[in-house]
Every structure is written in structure tokens, then in C-alpha cells.
Amino acid sequence: MKVTVLKDILSANDQMAGKNRELLDSHGITAINIMASPGAGKTSLILKTIEFLKGKARVGVIEGDIAGSVDADRIGAEGISVVQINTGGGCHLDAGMVANALASLPLDKIDLLFIENVGNLVCPAAYRLGEHQRVVLTSTPEGDDKPQKYPVMFSEAEVVLINKIDLLSLLDFDPDKFKRTVTGLNPDVRLFELSSKTGEGFGEWINWLLAEVKLHRKEPESTTTPKALAAKMRISPKRLRSTLRSEHPRDDKLKHKPWRIPQPIAKEVEETYKVKKAAKEANKRLKQ
Ligand SMILES: Nc1nc2c(ncn2[C@@H]2O[C@H](COP(=O)(O)OP(=O)(O)O)[C@@H](O)[C@H]2O)c(=O)[nH]1
Ligand SMILES: [Mg+2]
User: Fold this and answer.
1) What's the CA-to-centroid distance between 195 and ligand 1, angstroms?
2) Alpha-carbon span 101 to 24, nearest angstrom
3) Among 21, 56, 113, 163, which residue has the fewest nearby CB atoms (within 10 Å)?
4) Of ligand 1's atoms, which has the minimum distance to the CA of residue 48?
């Protein structure tokens, strides 16, 4: 009985996550779910990444915490669009919470959305949020045995980051052992080592993020002007306008200012006009 209830909750969450993904895709936003234990450096990673991405991608952030707005305040202070979610005791974010947060973000002004999940290496793994990529962050003071203790989290991530490598010389964290365990659980994972304090190792991480942004960015729809289309069709702009009105009387896309015609419609108008013109001429010849 209990199992069925949990399955129902998870499938309702998946449906909502699917809707979030559709919304993000319609705005060409890449969303990254960042998961880690408390103190691993999620907020520091986001802040340092924002620094590296200045002028390259517009970042937005959803901050998930059990209570308070300390992290959101740190990010907001950098002039970044940020929404704080307080789970009120809940150990993870779910897709419904993210849907609410998305409603208050300026989606047309964001290329890359970081979702900082609640600090926890267990529950966030079970809840999809609509993200494109899941990044698990581990930090060197936590020890290199975390993948063995929390295998689900590490097996489902697309990327695993080792943070705080500036402290390596002080600790007994063994990066090779850590990487072997992670790739044993998750052979396709990407691994990066970095320091969110010094910025060391950020190059590969930033390149990977920018490639993701490029992959999901929505190219602006290609358009033409009525003047250019009329010239191409060898008719007057006035004639074109009346053709457009008769063929696409209620097309919302034609109402945009300045008046530009989306390429697919321009092509359609051109084809229809050609066919109609040919039919008219054939009719004329028949009558002669
Ligand atoms: N030395 C060092 N400290 C770090 C690094 N990243 C984060 N910290 C520190 O770790 C603490 C927790 O970081 P925070 O970003 O708040 O972690 P979060 O709870 O995962 O969001 C803070 O004191 C940070 O300054 C790092 O790469 N190196
Ligand atoms: Mg944080």
C-alpha cells in the first residue's frame, strides 16, 4: 500500500517535471539541478560560475532551502534574478515548487538556470524537477567515500564535481579513488575538479556549461519584411498585403511590430500565390 502511494507521488511529480521542461524549452533555457550535502559549496559554485559567465550567458537561480533566504540574498546581491523556495522542513525540492518559482522569474531574460537543491545526498535524487542536467557536488573535506555511501545520487548524475580542491594538501581525500568509485557506479559521468574559492579548474566546467546553453538556446525565428517578400514575388507591397490578409486573416504572428513575416509563412504565401497565378493564367488561356 505504502509503495503504491509513493509511486503515485513520484509519477505526479514526473508529470509536473515534464511541464517544467516544456516551459524551459519554449524559452530556450538550460536548467541545471545542483545537489550536494550542506556546506559542500553549492552557493559558492553558483556565485563563482556567475563571475566566469559574465557577458557569455544570462543566469537565473532558484534557491532551495529548508528555511531562510541567506543564499538567495547572496545571489541577489550580484544583480541576478533569484527566487527562494523554503521547503518548510522538506528535505528536497519537487517539481511543483519549481513550477511556482518559474512563474516569478523573467524567463525571456535567462539562458542558464541553476536550481540549488536542499542540502542532502538522499531525497533530492528521487525527484525530477524538469532540469536538463543533474550535477552532484562533493567537497574534499567530506571524504572520498561518499559515492559508496550514497550510490543512487552518484549513479544518476550527469556530472560530478569535486569542490574545494584548494584544500587537498591538508586532507586525505584521494581524488583517484573517488573517481574510480564514481565511474564504477556511473560509467558515462563527467567529472570535474575545481575550487569555488580560487576559481581553479573552472575552465572545463564553464566550457561544458556553455556547450549546454548553446544546445538548448532557441534561435530567434527567421523573418523577412513585406517589402523584401513583395520584391521577391515581383508584386507590389499593396498586392502582397491583400494576399496576406486573405490567406492568413487571423495569424497572430503577422500582427507583431515592426511588421515582419516569419519565413515559413513567407514561403507558404509565395507558393500559394504562384499556384493561384498559374491557375488564373490557365483559365484565361482556356477562355481565349
Ligand atoms: N576552501 C574552500 N572553501 C569553500 C569552497 N567552496 C565553498 N567553500 C566554503 O564552504 C562553506 C559552505 O559553502 P556554501 O557555498 O554556502 O555551501 P552550500 O551549503 O553547499 O551552498 C563556505 O564557508 C564557503 O566559503 C572551496 O572551493 N574552497
Ligand atoms: Mg547554499
Assistant:
1) 9
2) 12
3) 56
4) 6
Which tens digit of pLDDT belongs to each residue from 180-229? 999 999 999 999 999 999 999 999 999 999 999 999 998 777 888 888 99
* 128 three-state secondary structure: coil
Nearest CA to ligand 1 atom 1: 164
CATH architecture for residues 2-216: 3-Layer(aba) Sandwich (3.40)
Q: How confident is the model at residue 238 (pLDDT cuts 50, 70, 90)?
A: confident
Q: How many angstroms separate the CA atoms of 215 and 133, rounded?
A: 12
Instruction: Write the pLDDT tens digit of every residue in 271-284.
Output: 888 888 899 889 98
> How many helices (H) and strands (E) are present in the chain, helices listed first?
11, 9
Q: What is the C-alpha R_g of the chain?
A: 26
- Most confident range (mean pLDDT) of 8-12, 80-84, 220-224, 240-244 is 80-84
Residue with CA closest to ligand 1 atom 23: 39
Poorest-confidence range of 23-32, 90-99, 261-270? Answer: 261-270
pLDDT at 8 over 80: no
**Cell numbers standing for residue 133:** 542536467
Mutate to test the pocket of ligand 1, among 37, 46, 196, 198 (most ligand atoms within 8 A of CB): 196
Spacing, Cα 56 to ligand 2 middle (Å): 24
Task: Give the whole-angstrom CA distance, residue 186 versus residue 238.
Answer: 63
> Looking at residue 3, what is its pLDDT?
66
Find the residues whose C-beta lies inside 6 A of ligand 1: 36, 38-44, 71, 119, 163-164, 166-167, 195-197
Q: Measured in angstroms, how far is the CA atom of residue 96 from the centroid of ligand 1?
A: 28
